[in-house]
Specification:
Low-confidence stretches: none
Structural class: alpha/beta
Helix content: 25-40%
Distance between the termini: 33 Å
Bound molecules: alpha-D-glucopyranose
Strand content: 15-25%
Number of strands: 26
Strand order of the largest sheet: 11-16-15-14-12-13
Number of helices: 19
């Protein structure tokens, strides 16, 4: 270790355990390097109005020349089902961090999407912990490959914004382990430099003071050996946080002073403080390495475009109206009316402000289609700009065209931190506009900008095509134009269920009683819920169309051990268009002595397959692919018997399946993990 704790006075040590201002940490009277921690999952929030910001005082003109790149949201990354995309995303943001001297990026968030209403769902990956965990793990690896730290957040059960500082998320231990800590357990294998604890309580104890969670589970069982930082103002009683092994309290408040009093009163010892200080010194040392960004601003923008292309989900394409080829096309696109442009992300700490205007969608489509098309555009406005969509203008123009590309959706004032949505439908003005335009033109293509599930049932039957754009970052229009015109073949699939109605959802609009949010649905969230209740959904988890067609065949399951298997299968692109296919591996335990989901995701793969060709996909299964957390044994447990291995194009489009039988020695069953 470069730093010797013995060279620090007690007050210098205490100063290291809380922030200096909002984003920086102490230099302990010049004895250590202070750190800069900044948001967020979609790129750097450089907070130019904050005196701590590296760009404080810059004019907008100066800022526009250096501003960080707004990458696609983690919602979009999850919809790409491509871990390499997540890695590249993190790697790109890390270059901005290096240029701005940021030591730790406060991302990614892996909270489960328990309710589609959660305002921060755009920051999170999925309703499934396996998908969320693996995407987050790659994102972390991408950032930290550049020697920039990350902060895996918010640990744990911060699944709603309503009353997040005070409400207690309540669930049994099996639910916590199988659903709410499981994504962290997978992502921690990338050894994030920090984990951020959540605001809320878990079963009555604040996350920041929850020793079972922070020390026993995260450190002891998951093997996390980094620093635990509080969410901003998530600490309450400093000594209780130290006892729970929280290391760093952000931002500055009366934390060090509180610890000093606790030492003087004999509540905690200097040795307990030293353990926390050692974690901080280790983090500081990790940041003191040579770092060089490897990309230009233009290259980062191009990566943002490419990753957005990977993430779009084609939900409907009746009469193969897409890709667009020719004719008179009206584009009703979000336009920059001074302070709003196309929604590229959600609101709050994850918001990345881009001063440079986005390229216009109509011009990009015109460029792609050339002489074959006559493209015109009409302004549409995001709802929160309070200039509600100019329906008449759009409708009048609609009837004079062969097709209409209609951009609708939410923006950062509808989906963001500190508030939840009240429903999951589009704003009434946008719904009305879709229906009115559809009356005038039978070829309507709807592009939905949103950060989480949207109930499209009121209008989806009236339009020919729907693309889920998501919150896709600053390259959204370049990526969307290429997708609409067939230069990009959409390959995303849903990382969360789109229900027919919020009434069908497990947590629905319920916000708890102001004290407790009781997770009564247990492990049955997302597709686990809709499968258990045998409910129809608008679009299932894992669903997405392509301009290609794929067939699945030749499932092979090779046994390597009683709970170790190698599953392989063939995917053939039977179309004349090259494309990528996301295939999913689900495991089902049809006869179990505990309630279990109908199926659970235990593997996935995205493969590029040229037209007319086939590729074999191979995925492993291991003990945890079959196990559940047994409350009586207090451990992960595989019950002997039949298991069904399913390969799906979505969770409700199972193409191949085969049963295997596990017969573990009864004694061995009780000793695993
Ligand atoms: C916020 C968020 C957290 C963010 C931090 C710093 O309240 O919950 O995700 O990183 O504070 O802005």
């Amino acid at each position: 270790m470069k730093y010797d704790i013995k060279n620090l006075t007690l007050d210098e040590k205490l100063s290291l355990l809380e922030g200096v201002g909002n984003w920086r940490t102490s230099n302990a009277n010049g004895k250590v390097k202070p750190l800069l921690l900044m948001d967020g999952p979609q790129g750097l929030r450089i907070a130019p109005t904050s005196e701590e910001s590296p760009v404080y005082g810059m004019s907008n003109e100066e800022l526009a020349k250096v501003e960080p790149t707004a990458m696609p949201s983690c919602f979009n990354l999850a919809n790409s089902w491509n871990t390499e995309a997540a890695y590249l995303d993190g790697n790109t943001i890390a270059d901005d961090c290096i240029d701005f001297g940021v030591d730790v990026l406060l991302a990614p968030g892996v909270n489960m999407k328990r309710t589609a209403l959660c305002g921060r769902n755009f920051e999170y990956f999925s309703e499934d912990p396996y998908l969320a965990g693996h995407m987050a793990k790659s994102y972390i690896e991408g950032v930290q490959s550049k020697k920039v730290g990350t902060s895996l957040k918010h640990f744990c059960m911060n699944n709603r914004e309503h009353d997040r500082f005070h409400i207690s998320s309540e669930a049994d231990e099996r639910t916590i382990r199988e659903i709410y800590t499981s994504a962290f357990e997978i992502a921690v294998k990338a050894q994030p430099w920090t984990v951020m604890c959540a605001y809320n309580l878990i079963n009555g104890v604040y996350a920041a003071e929850n020793k079972w969670l922070l020390n026993d589970v995260l450190r002891g069982e998951f093997g996390f050996d980094g620093l635990i930082v509080s969410d901003w103002r998530a600490t309450r009683e400093p000594w209780r946080a130290v006892k729970a092994t929280l290391d760093l309290c952000m931002p500055k408040q009366e934390y060090a002073a509180g610890l000093r009093r606790a030492i003087d009163e004999g509540i905690i010892t200097e040795a307990e403080i030293d353990e926390r200080v050692e974690r901080m010194l280790a983090l500081i040392e990790k940041t003191e390495v040579e770092k060089k960004s490897a990309t230009t601003k233009q290259e980062r923008h191009e990566r943002s475009v490419e990753l957005a292309k990977e993430s779009f989900v084609l939900l409907k394409n009746e009469d193969s109206i897409l890709p667009l080829r020719k004719g008179k096309i009206l584009v009703a696109e979000f336009t920059d009316n001074g302070f709003h442009h196309a929604p590229i992300g959600g609101g709050g700490s994850a918001k990345v402000d881009v001063l440079n205007p986005l390229k216009k969608l109509d011009g990009l489509i015109a460029e792609n289609l050339g002489e074959a098309a006559e493209v015109s555009s009409v302004d549409n406005f995001v709802i929160s700009s309070r200039i509600v969509a100019r329906q008449a203008k759009i409708i009048n123009r609609a009837r004079q065209n062969d097709a209409v590309v209609l951009c609708v959706g939410n923006d950062h004032e509808i989906e963001g931190e500190a508030f939840d949505r009240q429903n999951i439908r589009l704003d009434a003005a946008h719904e009305r506009m879709i229906l009115n335009v559809a009356e005038q033109n039978e070829n309507v293509i709807v592009c939905v900008f949103a950060g989480s599930a949207i109930d499209m049932s009121p209008w989806i039957d009236k339009v020919k095509a729907v693309i889920l754009v998501g919150f896709a970052g600053e390259g959204v229009h370049e990526a969307l134009a290429d997708t609409l015109c067939g230069l990009n073949n959409p390959s995303g699939k849903l990382s969360e269920t789109f229900p027919l109605s919020l009434d069908d959802a497990p947590a629905g609009a319920y916000e708890g009683n102001g004290l407790v949010d009781s997770y009564d649905e247990g492990i049955f969230i997302g597709y686990r819920w809709y499968d258990k209740k045998k409910k129809e959904v608008l679009f299932p988890f894992g669903y997405g169309l392509s301009y290609s067609k794929f067939e699945y065949s030749d499932l092979k399951i090779e046994k390597k051990g009683e709970t170790d298997y190698e599953v392989s299968y063939l995917i053939t692109n039977t179309s004349d268009t090259d494309g990528s296919e996301v295939s999913q591996l689900y495991v089902s335990d049809p006869v179990a002595m505990v309630s279990r989901p109908v199926k659970e995701l235990k593997g996935f793969n995205k493969t590029f397959i040229p037209a007319g060709e086939s590729r074999r996909v191979t995925l492993p299964l291991n003990f945890r692919s079959f196990a559940y957390y047994n409350l009586s044994l207090k451990r992960w447990y595989v019950e002997n018997g039949e298991f069904e291995i399913m390969i799906g194009a979505s969770s409700r489009d199972i193409r191949l399946s085969e049963s295997i039988y596990i017969n573990l020695d009864e004694r061995e069953q009780l000793s695993q993990e």
